[in-house]
Amino acid sequence: MNLTCKRWACFFAVVTVAAVVASGCGGKGSTGGNTPSASDDRPSERLTGTVKADGSSTVFPITEAVAEEFQKTQPNVRVIVGISGTGGGFKKFSAGETDISDASRAIKEPEKQACAAAGVEYLEFKVAYDGLAVVVNPQNNWVDSITVEQLKRIWEPNSSVKKWRDVDPKWPAEPIKLYGPGTDSGTFDYFTEAINGKEKSCRSDFTASEDDNVLVTGIAADKFALGYFGFAYYAENRTKLKLLAIDAGAGPVKPSDETVRGGTYKPLARPLFVYVKKSSLARPEVAEFVRFYLANAKQLASDVNYVPVTDDEAKGNMEALESATK
CA 136 to CA 179: how far, in whole Å? Predict the structure, then answer.
């Protein structure tokens, strides 16, 4: 499994809605000793300009990593990477405010319609896979796995679960403290549909945040907490959290490269996307950034603890881009 922490230290300094990735950002480590490749064999052209990306906090680490490596080859291009959640990112994308929209789910029909109404045409690229991690505090010694049905009882609207023993009488008679992504997050959409059967169908009495680091901090500080977010955030904080296996009926399974990409980690494995505005590709700095992104997505997604796409998927991404930029 590719679970070694290789994230860069300045990611943890991101406390605002947007992170501006500057070429002089310090404190970065290597990407596992492998230098990302140039997007092709053409002579490197010195470019200027700005590339704007926004959207999913789950996809943010990949796009940030790509931006930092890209700026080593194109230091005069400013890449701005924001975190507004998948839904918030699509709102900015359809409003013409960004070139790229990071998404932890596929674009929805109303978002497609908003783009069409604004004349925004786009390309969709699958850049990695992610498993949602269900986690508890490391002091939790009464649960190692949890069933999909138990998760539904905990998270469904108007849930009667207030204490741990409401889920299982063998568990403590202590209040269960819940943490999860905000309602504008693609992670929230995915989890509620997978567990509760309907997107955004969820109890309201939990601590919500679009910033997954806030959720990590809350769960790590509370013995009786339970929460969920993208698996990469667990991998980054494994010493602070305890990962639960999920039992969908065939026995408990934990997320890994194999179980996420192979679909055995049910029902909490998903693909991750970037959406690129076609008109933005007419600007050389955007076209080159996207080309670099797709050429290096497998390596950099792995470096920040996501499951990379297959070779065939990576090849298909690049062919789609080259066809659109002829």
Answer: 10
101 vs 195: CA distance, rounded Å:
26
Distance CA 246, CA 92 (A): 35
Question: What are the structural domains, with CATH classification, of the chain?
Answer: 9-129+272-324 (3.40.190.10), 131-269 (3.40.190.10)
User: What pLDDT is recorded for position 305?
Assistant: 77
For 112, the token pair is 């497609």
Strand, coil or helix: what is 122?
strand
CB 37 within 8 A of CB 309: no
* pLDDT given at position 38: 56
DSSP tally for the chain: helices H, then strands E? 10, 13
pLDDT of residue 262: 82
pLDDT of residue 270: 86
**Distant-in-sequence contacts of 91-94, Cβ < 8 A, 24+ apart:** 92/54, 92/55, 93/54, 93/55, 93/120, 93/122, 93/275, 93/277, 94/118, 94/120
Separation CA 142–CA 121 (nearest Å): 51
Tokens matching residue 130: 């992610």
C-alpha count within 13 angstroms, C-beta hemisphere, residue 304: 26
pTM passes above 0.85: no
pLDDT value of residue 39: 52
Cβ–Cβ < 8 Å for 321, 123: yes
Query: Mean pLDDT, 10 residues at a time, over the chain (326 residues)?
Result: 37 36 36 51 75 94 95 96 94 97 95 98 95 96 98 97 98 98 88 92 94 94 96 90 96 91 89 96 97 95 86 95 92
Measured between alpha carbons, how far is 203 from 126 in angstroms, rounded to an integer?
Answer: 31
